[in-house]
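Lab notebook, page 48
Experiment: co-folding of the full assembly
Goal: obtain a model of how the components sit together before planning crosslinking
Operator: M.T.
Materials (sequences as entered):
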Amino acid sequence: MEYSRTPYQQSAALLRALSHPVRLSLLNVLCEEEQCVCHLTALVGKRQAYISQQLAELRRVGVVTMRKEGLRVYYRVTDARVRVILKSLETPRGAQRPAHGCECPKCADKGG
Amino acid sequence: MEYSRTPYQQSAALLRALSHPVRLSLLNVLCEEEQCVCHLTALVGKRQAYISQQLAELRRVGVVTMRKEGLRVYYRVTDARVRVILKSLETPRGAQRPAHGCECPKCADKGG
DNA sequence: AAAGTATATTCAAGAAATGGAATATTCAAG
DNA sequence: CTTGAATATTCCATTTCTTGAATATACTTT
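Observation: model returned without errors.
Model output:
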């Protein structure tokens, strides 16, 4: 698992953790404010064990943190990027400016 | 595969397409401006067929579009969310305000 | 139409994610 | 220390992702 050469490895791992319907809905709630597991379980409408699994996944990449208080466990978002990303998902798609010619390194800068 | 109830399904698919080191590096280049496949291949340093595979994946979720011009094929980003997300990945993590009590629907709003 | 170039697609095997079931852990109360 | 409640973890079968290899397609030139 020698997976840490490109700077994209870590970003990819973050995005992968987010790229799941249930985890997204969890984060969406958590982005507002800290919540306990029972709340999250009720909101998402899945088994508690399953919710815990998904929360563990989110912890694994460090986007949420848990805090115990008696029997309850409270989760909250600890990575600001999550909010930006979740918010951007609501954004309309939008397009981009057209094109221009090609200046491949393969074509122009070919001196290996 | 009856997977289209939550609005998160589609967002998750988008994020999943992005959550890959090679695809991220492709998008990073494409976010600047349109590029041809040979350019992308040279930049990323992988086999051409492989790059095409990843570009196809990105096309599948609609974040890039291809345009033919002779033998060359030019790709460009067509989903504004991609830029926001990629940019946010460079952002420092940042933390969040503390906590408060719990008001589970399970606890308070229990009238099922 | 044959040959060459740039790019796309298909196939398959190994790796990883998914989600259910059972079970373990932790804390509070008695 | 036993019981019960809230949450976490482990195990496993199934599905999905990954990526190399081979091959196909599309366009240009001759």
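Interpretation: Residues 36-38, 41, 48-49, 51-53, 55-56, 66, 68, 70-73 of chain A lie near DNA strand D (CB under 10 Å from a C1').
Next step: discuss with group before ordering constructs.
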